[in-house]
Amino acid sequence: MTENKKVLVAEDSSVIINLTKNVLMFENYHITAVKNGKQLLDKLATEDFDLILMDINMPIMDGIECTKAVRALVDPKKAKIPIIAITGNYKNYTLDDFKKAGLDDYIQKPLDYDHLLATVKKHLA
User: Fold this and answer.
1) pTM over 0.85
2) Does residue 1 lie within any of the structural domains?
3) Domain that residue 46 falls in
4) What domain count does the chain have?
5) Which residues carry this modification: 4-aspartylphosphate (predicted)?
6) What is the pLDDT along the chain (125 residues), one digit of tens a residue?
7) Could you tell me which residues come within 8 angstroms of residue 18 by beta carbon, excluding any fewer than 6 positions away?
């Protein structure tokens, strides 16, 4: 078995954080959660992660702004971490909009947890 992959979840909804943790921890992923983009950048400054799940609509710093900040990091390993958008407003964006912002993929809300798990596994393979 491979080492536990570390997933950083940026999401302002405690319900979604808890459900996501439950789904991913069942697969032995190590989950860390933050409530906004600023907290994500603070956490990323002190720890390494294998993947980020990024809510697009968060207070303080939204997911698009935060993704651009991650992509601009000096550390090339951290700047290239796969980032998957989580959004309820996917109709306001195209996949091309997400790609331009630096996001690798997206999952729409309400979350389909089988799809979430498959998308996470695809980017961590």
Assistant:
1) yes
2) no
3) 6-124
4) 1
5) 55
6) 346 899 999 999 999 999 999 999 888 999 999 999 999 999 999 999 999 999 999 999 999 999 999 999 999 999 999 999 998 875 677 778 888 999 999 998 888 999 999 999 999 98
7) none
